Structures are given as structure tokens and as C-alpha cells.
């Protein structure tokens, strides 16, 4: 069935100066988003996502996690208030049943389901459908806890989303693993350094051990297990790595404080230790996920 795109006006929509939103959406969907595929797969395997799953994906972006759940038979709804460009890509992905990556060798086919995938531009409340059963799975795969204020933002999303979920439904939160096990940490420090050279702080900070648990607790959720997943970041070359990392938004504050050329230069230098003799870039990372339950 054809995925539904629901457009809602949202005061949370964000516009970042000096950024081409179409180029950013393309770089995210073609370069960066696939780095999190092992995380999506691990969570879906652990929760046995399938034909009985009704999933709500928060900050769904260009929809690769939704597509992978739909390929397992799940009925999926994605919601995001930030980027119409990303949501347009998500709709096209779910319509075509492909990853959207021009370099991909395979097609991810979605099974025929009674419920069409839905893509909603707005808040979780805008995704409410009083005629449909409650969601059995809510995912917040965007890594949290590493930018100023993102825990509060995630808490607000969960507060709006959990009333749409069934009692006992799984809520999955994701974040970076220990800094010493994430090679990308040294690259992300560029964001902090350029944002505030005096204090070395700014739009990024290392993830803390209990970040996810604290968000879940504030949202009134019951923790029910966690896990760690290797998610290496691999790029064809340094230029691709820079574009992919910039598409995350982690360096927006640094670009605003300096300029794009300076950020590109600093990122390229920080990536140098991870460049292989053939020009590719490889950074081993570990991501963490928390499974919590709606009370």
C-alpha cells in the first residue's frame, strides 16, 4: 500500500543558517544513516519485530529504520518535526521499498500489510489515529545525550508519544557507548573546540553512563534491559566522511561560531588517523540501547 505523508505545521521545525537542507538530507540518507543499521537490526532481533508489531519511530528522518521494520512485516508510522526534505526521502523509500542508497547492491522489499506506512511531519500527537490499535513499539534511535538540551527534547517527545502506546509496549532509546570505545569521539570533539575554544564545550559532550536511564525515568518508563552494538563508521574517502558527519547536525554550532571552511579543515585533520592506505576512513564505535516499558 502507498505510504501516507501527513504534513502538519510545527513550531519545532528548525532552520539552520548556512545549510542547504536538500544536500544535508541527501548526505544523511546516502552516507551517514546506514552506519546505524547494526543498531536497528540488533533491536529488531531482540524484540522479535514482525507482523504483530505496530511501530512509532520518533525523529524518523529519512526512514531507513522504518523501512527495515516494515520489511519484517511491522506496521510503521514515522514522525519528525525538523526536516521536510528528510521526510520526503522517507516517503519515497517506503513507497519504493529500497534503501535509497545509490551504492546499495540489494533491495529491501516490504511485505504486503493491511496498514500503509505513515510519515507525519509534526509531533507525536499528530501521529495519533483513534481508529487504529495502540503502538506496541516506540523507537528513538537518534543517539541522545551528547548535545546540550537533547535529553530534555527527547523527554518531551516521549511524554507526547507514550500515551499512544499500549501498556507494556517497548520504548527503545539509543546513545553513544563509552567514549573510549568510540573512535568518532575524537572527531566529535572538534565540534566542542570550535564552538567554545576557551572552555572546550559547546554543542557536543561525551555520552554519560546513565543518560538513557535518566531520560526513561523522567518519562515514567520502566527499564527492561539494554545492550551494546558495534556500529563502525566507514566512508569511501575523507570528503565523504566530512559530508556524512556534517549531516548529523552535530557541527552546526561550530559552523555558526566559525565558518564552514574552518570546520571542514579541522574535521579533515581529525579524520587523518583513521584514514587507511587506500583512502577509506574507518572508525570503530559502540552504541548502546535501552529498552523500557510503558507502565
Describe what you observe in this structure.
The protein has one domain: Rossmann fold. α1 packs across α8 (238-246). It is globular and about 50 Å long. β3, α4 and β4 form a beta-alpha-beta unit. The chain is of the alpha/beta class and 295 residues long. The two termini are 33 Å apart. The chain has helices at 21-32, 37-47, 64-71, 84-96, 150-161, 184-195, 211-218, 238-246, 252-257, 260-271; strands at 4-7, 54-58, 75-80, 118-121, 135-144, 165-176, 222-230, 233-235, 281-283, 286-293.
Mean pLDDT: 87
CATH architecture: 3-Layer(aba) Sandwich
- Report the CATH topology name: Rossmann fold
Q: What class do helices, strands and sheet pairing give?
A: alpha/beta
What is the strand tally? 10
Task: Return the string of H and E elements.
Answer: EHHEHEHEEHEHHEEHHHEE
Tell me the distance between the termini: 33 Å
Query: Over all CA atoms, what is the radius of gyration?
Result: 18 Å
Amount of helix: 25-40%
> Which outline best applies?
globular
Task: Summarize the SSE layout with pairings.
Blueprint: E1 4-7, H1 21-32, H2 37-47, E2 54-58, H3 64-71, E3 75-80, H4 84-96, E4 118-121, E5 135-144, H5 150-161, E6 165-176, H6 184-195, H7 211-218, E7 222-230, E8 233-235, H8 238-246, H9 252-257, H10 260-271, E9 281-283, E10 286-293
Helix pairs in contact: 1-8, 2-3, 5-7, 6-10, 8-10
Region (Disordered): 1-24, 94-131
Keywords: Methyltransferase, Transferase
Protein name: SAM-dependent methyltransferase
Summed up:
By secondary structure, the chain is an alpha/beta fold. The protein has helices at residues 21-32, 37-47, 64-71, 84-96, 150-161, 184-195, 211-218, 238-246, 252-257, 260-271, and strands at residues 4-7, 54-58, 75-80, 118-121, 135-144, 165-176, 222-230, 233-235, 281-283, 286-293. It has a single domain, classed as Rossmann fold (3-Layer(aba) Sandwich).
